[in-house]
Amino acid sequence: MLSVNQTAAPVSYATVEVLGSGSRDDRLFRFAAIWGRAIYPGTAAAMTRAEFERHLVPLARVLRDALHARPFDSKPAVEVGAALVRANCTDPEVLPLILSVIDAYLVLYCPPGTPMPVEESRARCSRLQHAVAAGFARALRERTLAEQEAVTRVARAAQAETEQALRDSEARFRAVFEGAAVGVGVADVQGRITDVNDALVRMLGQSVTGRNVGELVHPDDPPECWSLYRELVRGDRDHYRLEKPYYRSDGSVLWTDLSVSLLRDASGAPRYQLAVMQDITERRLLRERLRYEVTHDSLTGLPNRTLFFERLDRALQTATSGEGVRQGGPDAAGARFGLCYLDIDGFKAVNDSLGHAVGDQLLVAVAERLRSCVRAPHELVARLGGDEFVALSTGPAASGDATALARRMLAALAEPIHVGGRDLSVRASIGIVDGVAGEPGAAEVLRSADITMYRAKAAGGNRYEHADADCDARAIARHSLTTCLPAALDHGEFFIEYQPLVRLADGTVRGAEALVRWLHPVHGVLGPDQFIPLAESTGLIVPLGRWVLEESARQARSWRAAEGGEPAPLRVNVNLSPSQLRHPGLVADTVAILGNAGLDPSALCLEVTENALIGADEDELRHLRQLADLGVDIALDDFGTGYSNLSYLRRLPVSTLKLDRSFTRGMQRAPADPVDVKIVEGIVSLAHTLDLSVTVEGVETGAQADHLRLLGCDTAQGWYYARPGPPERLHTLSLADAS
């Protein structure tokens, strides 16, 4: 069967063309024929194979129509599973065959009439398989309940007739006893078996007459089995029913639906016990097979998300259920847990470059190595999906066990894995959470482990990290801010402050940098470093950046109107993120905003960080060149934090360098750091040679401003002049040392 990680069966284009020939019904009949040939041997249908294949045609049509439906709905496939049960497809091995044919041939023989991505068609096919399995299991359960009810009616009828026979006529009882199709046995209240019918002898492969009921024990007997038996022979109850296993004469196991009733004499005293049992071995095997498929990953064979959460819930409920106390107090075995959340570093690159088939082989190999790391019954490794695995450890030493397990998993993956004809190095990041059972919930534990795993990945990967409550809180706060961002823009929660840009030669204000702020209703005013990375990662930076540009352009127009036509009008600087730089509508949006504000392009300067332009090709620089050709100034922000190589500036459409503050801190006091002086002097000289102006950020003292002026820097900004503030305070300069 195809895994979640796979997208399509490996079929060539030529094969698709051949299978695609003929009418849709022809292809449907072919699919039904293949389906029938695969599952007919495991059915108990009173039909020939040809009749059975024709019976499957309408069911195949339901699957085909559901596969192509828009919008997609897997519910019709539930009825397909139920219909197969009604057609007596109930053998334990039939369901895997049913699902494997759908997985391998449904998309192949019933391709969509309109174009559909291969990934979508395979995902739909997978969901249809789940729906068929669900319908199959539900119908089988309903059928089982009906059969059990029928057995109950037979048992009650047998009990009534047997009691009457014991009182009135042994011959009449014997007729019912011997003629019953189910196994029937009679024992006295001391447990000695006095009689059994032929059906029971055939079921067990031997007669058990004369033996004691207490001898027929089995290790898998339900816990309540023998307590119910003792209550019945004491006369405290008249009936009980359960599923009980027995050993056959050949050593195999017989599973029965056992119903035991107490027969009383005329005075009401317990006299006999009557057992009626039906062979449910095949049904039990099918149920166990269905249970296994529901709780195990089809690709790797590891426990899946369902079984993992069952075990995790059980571990977390140990303390609250009192199990830990019963085992010796709150520190007893089972009262603690440790969880490792593992994600393969760079797995997407394997799928994208080598294909999903190789990716699946890699996952199988990784799963096998992780399985080998489990060394005790209280440890479990499972696959949650994709390239995500989890390991659970319980017991008083769970914290240390989880750390040791994480080390073993990393060590197990250290050796390259040979798949697809090549050796692949596998790295993984692991987040570890441990604690006392009963305190956290499963969702909280997994969330903390997931956050911790990403912290390990951010630290370079191929390592493990332990959960930290403060780190979790920060991650949750970042997520909260991320979810609030779209509504914040709609609700007008953002505002802009402006920091003056001062000409060093004469100390006049020649412009301002626009700095966006977020007035959060709970957290107050947030700076751009707290939300711009979130906006960048979610794509909201494009509409937010457009809003900042619109507001800044309107403000620049307002300043220019107030200036009354001075020869050197004020200019506004607006930061441009890497996502905005790549956005196809950047130039058109900028031109439209300038036009709507009635602002000349020369009044706008767009600041782009040096790191965003390092290694950029001509296509990536195209938008900046177009804006520069229109007259918009381009400033290279945070210069010196990247390669600090002036030679590549010759090909960039920039007109201004904004020197990073790290180069000028040594000038805040006299005498200035001679190394910083030489570095800045060299940068300014070379920049002016390239006809670039130089702006310095982070000016905090008068001494620093004097040094920069003597070195030939053109403009500066920083707290020495003014902190960011409202637009009406643009010309209010403090000229006071800030450090």
UniProtKB/TrEMBL annotation:
<feature type="domain" description="EAL">
    <location>
        <begin position="478"/>
        <end position="738"/>
    </location>
</feature>
<dbReference type="InterPro" id="IPR000160">
    <property type="entry name" value="GGDEF_dom"/>
</dbReference>
<dbReference type="InterPro" id="IPR035965">
    <property type="entry name" value="PAS-like_dom_sf"/>
</dbReference>
<dbReference type="InterPro" id="IPR001633">
    <property type="entry name" value="EAL_dom"/>
</dbReference>
<dbReference type="InterPro" id="IPR000700">
    <property type="entry name" value="PAS-assoc_C"/>
</dbReference>
<dbReference type="Pfam" id="PF13426">
    <property type="entry name" value="PAS_9"/>
</dbReference>
<dbReference type="InterPro" id="IPR000014">
    <property type="entry name" value="PAS"/>
</dbReference>
<feature type="domain" description="PAS">
    <location>
        <begin position="169"/>
        <end position="205"/>
    </location>
</feature>
<dbReference type="InterPro" id="IPR001610">
    <property type="entry name" value="PAC"/>
</dbReference>
<dbReference type="Pfam" id="PF00990">
    <property type="entry name" value="GGDEF"/>
</dbReference>
<dbReference type="Pfam" id="PF00563">
    <property type="entry name" value="EAL"/>
</dbReference>
<dbReference type="InterPro" id="IPR052155">
    <property type="entry name" value="Biofilm_reg_signaling"/>
</dbReference>
<dbReference type="InterPro" id="IPR035919">
    <property type="entry name" value="EAL_sf"/>
</dbReference>
<dbReference type="InterPro" id="IPR029787">
    <property type="entry name" value="Nucleotide_cyclase"/>
</dbReference>
<feature type="domain" description="PAC">
    <location>
        <begin position="240"/>
        <end position="292"/>
    </location>
</feature>
<dbReference type="InterPro" id="IPR043128">
    <property type="entry name" value="Rev_trsase/Diguanyl_cyclase"/>
</dbReference>
<feature type="domain" description="GGDEF">
    <location>
        <begin position="335"/>
        <end position="469"/>
    </location>
</feature>
<protein>
    <submittedName>
        <fullName>GGDEF domain-containing protein</fullName>
    </submittedName>
</protein>
